[in-house]
Amino acid sequence: MITTSDKTFYYTIEKPSVEEFKDRGSKFIAYAYPIETTDDFKKLLQNLKKEHPKAVHHCFAYRLGTDGNNFRVSDDGEPSGTAGRPILGQIDSKEITNTAIIVVRYFGGTLLGVPGLINAYKTAATLALQVVPIIQKQVEVIFNIQFDYTQMNEVMMVMKQYNCTIISKEMQLFCHINAGIAKTRLHEVLYRLKELQQVEVKKIE
Questions:
Q1: Does residue 1 form part of some domain?
Q2: What whole-number percentage of the chain has pLDDT above 90?
């Protein structure tokens, strides 16, 4: 996967999807999700384990960010390299990121062997990605913006005008917003915010 930290946009899936693949009695249910953080992923995995308590394996792969370094794979008890890597391979073949795929397996009584397992996990992941649109999204830099309540309208107008993503907000007498600002519009947005008096802007690392 060719990626650089200088990218201004990336590709991901538009919404969650689920598809099923069967082989010799075993059932492989692949769930694909758009994610922003590892915490997002952990919650999704916990939910699926509760939803499928009788499944023998919950194998997965995810990739986050645009530098290509933030990824994880798990075979969850399957022979090493037969599940997580083939799933990640499908994410990378589509050149997408901020994407997770969890494949839940119900054992059907027949051992599939290493080639059979690789094929099953790869196919299940492929099917889940085939049914969902891939979209282009702006790479955003996260900032914490602090301001007085009286300035809320002005600050929110800037956020709206430049399509900034509001990640979290605390609106009291003194307000805090964590917002994602598109790399391509960074200079304009920061300039506009600095024009407003008593607005503090700090980059979140």
A1: no
A2: 90
pLDDT band at 1 (very low <50, low <70, confident <90, very high): very low
Total count of domains within the chain: 2
Same domain, 50 and 80: yes
> 115-121 long-range CB contacts below 8 Å, 24 or more apart?
116/23, 116/24, 117/78, 117/79, 117/82, 117/83, 118/81, 118/82, 118/86, 119/23, 120/21, 120/23, 120/26, 120/28, 121/28, 121/59, 121/78, 121/82, 121/83, 121/86, 121/87
Are residues 110 and 147 part of one domain? Answer: no
Domain of residue 59, residue span: 9-136
Q: Is the pLDDT of residue 156 over 60?
A: yes
**Residue at a domain's end among 113, 136, 159:** 136
Mean per-residue pLDDT over the chain, rounded = 94
- What is the structure's pLDDT at 197? 85
Claim to verify: residue 131 and residue 145 sit in the same structural domain: no
pTM of the predicted protein model: 0.83
